[in-house]
Write a structure and sequence with these properties.
The structure is a homodimer.
Chain A (H helix, E strand, L loop, with lengths): L7 E4 L1 H14 L4 H16 L10 H9 L10 E5 L3 E5 L5 H19 L1 E9 L6 H4 L7 E7 L21 E5 L7 E5 L6 H10 L8 E3 L4 E2 L8 E3 L5 H14 L24 E9 L6 H16 L15 H13 L1 E4 H14 L6
Parallel strand pairs in A: 3-4
Antiparallel strand pairs in A: 1-12, 2-3, 4-11, 5-6, 5-11, 6-7, 8-9, 8-10
Helix pairs in contact in A: 1-2
Chain lengths: 355, 355
């Protein structure tokens, strides 16, 4: 696109999906699983989740080559209480585990109004929004949370990074308006944003990170000397902690000091925990009634006046949707440094380079 | 207590409970309901939720006397899908509705692993923590959220107050350590804190409120000229919105522009919405195992080093617990302005004054 920075290049989503698929198969994954993971990763890129799609491929490849991912997993339900279940991912790619968990939560919600499925023995699964959005087409609300795969957040008032950015996502079906999709870290900035600032040589705004003395840290090159700040101070800390108990501890997954930093350790199973809940609209009343009420809220928000400096008032998920429309037609922009990394990977796997 | 400010006076929790109970009966509530509501309100004061206990009594009384609360409600389950239910509160006191909802959620969690109960036709129910804590003694995790009873929060980038502080609370059972209880508004400050600052003649810190031009607003006397800020900017807005869909829209309760401001309107039914979820630990594994893992996280956090300016690292719920211990022995501190208000109420109801 004409407005792109010179270091950006665009690729059709199908090209990225195909590249990921081929890479995963070259890494030893069976065709079915590679197709599923590639589809979800390309979907992440299409939705504008730049830190969670093909950007992660080289890291996943390194973990697979190091034996840190089980390519022949037996993903199975190890507990089922009717409306809840616990899945052991057997150290599979997280995408495979959470796609299965989402399908089971939806099935349970159809039967009993809600399904809540926890997972352990999983791995990084990409953006949170991917999984809660699976509920939308079934006229359900989706809720998803996960333990982040590296601890960058201390408890409030502390300096030991015992917590992660533990994200939470919600997807709520609308009628004529866009579905509302929120995907948020419990920290002011996700760590991926720090990485991006470092890549671009930009400084970070105050409020993202502090150093061990509590002073603002704005140089991303010094990120290792500090840590992320939670949203709302003690509140964001509390929220990250509670999501950790729900996505990690409840499922027997890693949380706190036993979280494996997947940026530094490519071998030890991460025992990643997540949960997904699906809530059936029809268990609470008429589906169309619900969607009409959601539409009204959306329209009230859209038509409400703005603060100085804002062009309009948005709903969560709108930017991602606009980005998706743009990327469907113009392609997905990748930074040239990423393209280079992917082509190096392609050479090592003996597959066709991205170009 | 020797450290109290001169304008504070302390009362035993039983005295407050008895006073509330007598007031509610004088207002026409039956003895059973008055006992339940008085118990929960006094419990709120005991836990340090100063804005949600006896502080609310005069406001509740005014609403009851204005016909804005149904004193002979038929609180009933109007939908039941197995693991979910929807309760219509018939415009009862919110405490009665949510106590019933919590009991039902716990019953459902015992049967199917999780119970999720929504309510509409309810009213203000006091602090969120009260209800999710009911799950603890059943070896369950509790989650509760509600629509705030006055809109003080615009969508991010807007100036029209379409949202409330919509709180969320979680209660997680520990083993030998204290249970972890988080009760948080999705705004930087709850509106009760603004009221308290005004009462005390103190200014507010920057970050609590802004005016319609987006400038910091620190004078609580000018609170009507501005609005609260969400935690984490757009993230807290998104969270308040999603909790609104879940606690309000899903249940057919008021949300957005149809929220009744209970500070200004004492007659119109508020149609308050809440939800409560209970999750059974035993549906996911061993109860003792879970509690041991929670204890480990708590101990790791407690023993972690602090930032300059912090004496120790705390878990959510610790301050409330310490306050409870202090109040059990030394009594509950009430501001003299509140005591005066309560004694005026007592005179109008022809009951024994607080002293």
């Amino acid at each position: 696109m004409s407005g792109d920075a010179p270091e950006l290049r665009r690729f059709a989503v199908e090209r990225l999906r195909g590249f990921i698929d081929e890479a995963l198969r070259a890494l030893g994954m069976n065709a079915d699983d590679a197709g599923i993971v590639a589809g979800l990763m390309a979907e992440a890129d299409l939705n504008g989740s730049d830190g969670h799609g093909i950007f992660r491929l080289a890291q996943y490849a390194r973990r697979i080559e190091s034996g840190g991912i089980n390519l022949r997993p037996d993903i199975r339900v190890i507990r089922d209480a009717g409306a809840t279940a616990l899945i052991d991912g057997d150290n599979a790619m997280g995408h495979l585990v959470m796609r299965r968990a989402a399908a089971l939560a939806i099935e349970k919600a159809r039967a009993g109004g809600i399904g809540w499925v926890g997972a352990r023995g999983s791995n990084h699964a990409g953006p949170a929004a991917l999984y809660c959005k699976m509920a939308l087409q079934h006229d359900m609300i989706g809720i998803y949370a996960a333990i982040g795969n590296a601890n960058h957040l201390p408890p409030w008032g502390g300096v030991e990074m015992l917590l992660s950015t533990n994200p939470i996502a919600f997807a709520v079906p609308a009628g004529e308006e866009l579905d509302v999709v929120l995907d948020m870290a419990t920290t002011v900035a996700a760590y991926g944003k720090v990485k991006t600032a470092r890549l671009r040589g930009e400084s970070m705004p105050e409020g993202w990170m502090i150093d061990r003395e509590g002073r603002p840290l704005t140089d991303p090159e010094r990120a290792d000397e500090g840590f992320l700040l939670p949203i709302g101070g003690a509140k964001g800390y509390g929220l990250a902690l509670m999501l950790g108990f729900l996505a990690g501890t409840l499922n027997g997954a890693a949380f706190g000091s036993d979280v494996v930093d997947f940026n530094k350790d490519f071998v030890t199973p991460t025992n990643t925990g997540h949960f997904i809940a699906a809530i059936s609209l029809s268990a609470f009343g008429g589906i169309d009634d619900f969607k009409r009420r959601v539409d009204r809220v959306i329209r009230d928000i859209h038509s409400s006046p703005t603060l100085p400096g804002f062009d309009r008032v948005r709903l969560p998920g709108e930017r991602s949707h606009a980005e998706r429309l743009s990327r469907e037609s113009a392609g997905i922009p990748l930074h040239e440094a990423l393209v280079k990394e992917l082509n190096t990977l392609a050479a090592s796997l003996n597959i066709t380079p991205l170009e």
